[in-house]
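User: Okay, second chain of the day. Same drill as before: sequence in, structure tokens out.
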Amino acid sequence: MKRLWNRTALAALVALAPLSAAAAPAAVGSPALAWQSMGTLSPAEGQKENIGVAGLLQGTFGDYIIVGGGANFPAGGPLTGGAKVTYPDVYVLRAAEAGLTETDHAQMPYPVGYGVSATTPDGVLYFGGSTDESGARAVTRLTAPNGKLRTETLPALPFALQNGVAAYDKDTVYLGGGKQDGVLSKKFYTYDIKTGTLTSLPDFPGEAREQSVAEFLGGRFFVFSGGANVAYTDGYAYDPKAQTWMSVAGPNVNGTPVSLLGARAVRLNADEMLVVGGFNREIYDWAVSNLNTLQGEEKDAFRAHYFTMPPEDYHWNREILVYSAKADAWRSVGQLPFPAPCGEALVIARGALFSISGEVKPGVRSPRLYRGLFVK
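Assistant: Same drill. Structure tokens below.
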């Protein structure tokens, strides 16, 4: 077993030293965070080092974190024409007060990445998200008894799913959006975890999109932001009792809209969710517009400029945001002390928040794992 941060006694001390504490919370009861670097995962099978991935499978099983898959560019990013590689590697990490221990490193039967994950009492459900034709429709339950990965193949979805969202509540997973059979979709569903029954919901009222964030709070299923040719900053909630969607407050900081495209969310309690990351709306819209409209040498020059900008020039969201369903309001509880990730794994285990890997600029991933300790 690999203790992620304990390569030497000195490394252990460095890794457990706080990077910094989050800024003073904006409201009474806000969860301030003190962040620690926790090392890296072991390299994927056949690789010499872990360079990080985005679009990870994620969830928890007791005190164990199950995380893996995802994609990166081991031979260089989009500018150099390096191929995007998706991995079958899945890791089990035991969370303890002292740190993280890697208790298993196994392989799925096909690469997994950019699917949707939902943690349930019976394990982590992973829907779609694969470059493999059958894997793109697959539903898998992952558990970690005694820290060893165990997988169970469940009946497949009737469509391929990528970059959608999912949230769990009372034997039900709400899921949908993203690309379904390769096309952006407004279709959402409930999935009964006991029977595997998939039931259609009313169509999503906003524009079809992918890479949104979602959570089930206060009896409703919330979906925020995401993007297509533009980044969105709106929000919607589905009420299972009324069987209708309604508009809610979009993500913002002191009234200024914030894109959460590519961000990740976790449920803090029955009423609140916390979000990390998100592409900057203006820069995302500018880049997509230019990449879709410029031609020839002008496009080549733009690509050379865009993909070589330093991470800070993309202005990805570093505010740690909390949404209250009861108040229908957003607040910042501080800023990340490390580069804002998108497509990372974000989970709560042993009462701490873990941000694992993710993209830190287009085409570039971080291999780092960070633990955020909730402080008063």
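DSSP finds three helices and 35 strands in the chain.

User: Thanks, on to the next one.
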